[in-house]
Amino acid sequence: MPIDERHSVTLEQAKQAAEILYRNGIYFLIYVGGEPMAHPDLNEMITHASSLGMATMLVTNGSLLTPKRIDELADAGLMSVIISIDAAEAQKHEQNRGLRGVCDRIQEANTHFQRRNISTTASVTMSRLIEDYNQLPPFLKSLGFDSVTFSYPLTTLGSSYLGYAESDLVNYTAEELNQRFETVKALKRDFEVVNPTASIEDMQRHLRGEPEQFGCLGGWKLFYLDWHLNLYRCHNWEKPMCHITEFDGSQRVRDGCTACMIDCYRDSSVMQHIGVAVSDGVQAAAKGNLKAAWKHWFNHKNIVSLQAVWEQSTWLRRL
């Protein structure tokens, strides 16, 4: 992005946004970038959101993590951290990131996060930088990770979010990507993979052009707020729902969208399905529509959703 187009959210704007989100039933807040740790007011933003009762998470490349910064984040109320990892060996990861020595810093940071009872998870984009996925678990363990979430390749996005690229590293055929999904499912036997199996299998259906079991809850339970404070239903949607100051819940969208494979939305949607179904049933019963309530409550997808929650229960308890 050109320097003259760069813009950061102010502390007061961040506080106001957190208050509006919390008031509308949104209780998890994830700080992403760019590199969110470069923002001078990040600690204060987290402190305020935590004081409201929000669970705060951070996505970082790890380059700015020091014991002092980690203590500040912990004191602010940060609950969980996701650290980007691009390859199964240090040299290749650091070369791709342009961050020499960052793996040593990540290893030290994980030790300090553990002392402060903050969970960390490696976030690995499925790319051609990883030639052998079986090399990932020992490498991640050497860095101090005990869990990994896989991000699926993104070559285009409709919103203002810039976390995508047209690159040979992520340009897969459907067959190639499907095989990597199979490899990721197999990794679950030896290492904690945060992506639920049911969600991965839905993405495989997506690749094959088959009907998917679970629609995305982006725009209903999950949202993307950009640096101009425009609120989108997700990273992939071209038009914002509204400015954050206009958000009152009436703009929520729930249409069972299956347009993309953004893991953070699709994985969460699978696990949250059971909660939404129970709530839908309660509302139907309150209106006297017991037949509709029964359909919401006694549905095979609820069992699959519960299985996904159980599969990730160890990781979820650490959040």
Automatic annotation (TrEMBL):
Pfam families: Radical_SAM. One of its GO terms (molecular function) is iron-sulfur cluster binding. The keyword S-adenosyl-L-methionine applies. SUPFAM superfamilies: Radical SAM enzymes (SSF102114). Residues 1-195 form the Radical SAM core domain. The keyword Iron-sulfur applies. This is Radical SAM core domain-containing protein. It comes from the Bacteria. Keywords: Iron, Iron-sulfur, Metal-binding, S-adenosyl-L-methionine. InterPro entries: Aldolase_TIM, Radical_SAM_PqqE_MftC-like, rSAM, rSAM_sf. The lineage of its organism: Bacteria, Bacillati, Cyanobacteriota, Cyanophyceae, Nostocales. It comes from Trichormus variabilis SAG 1403-4b.
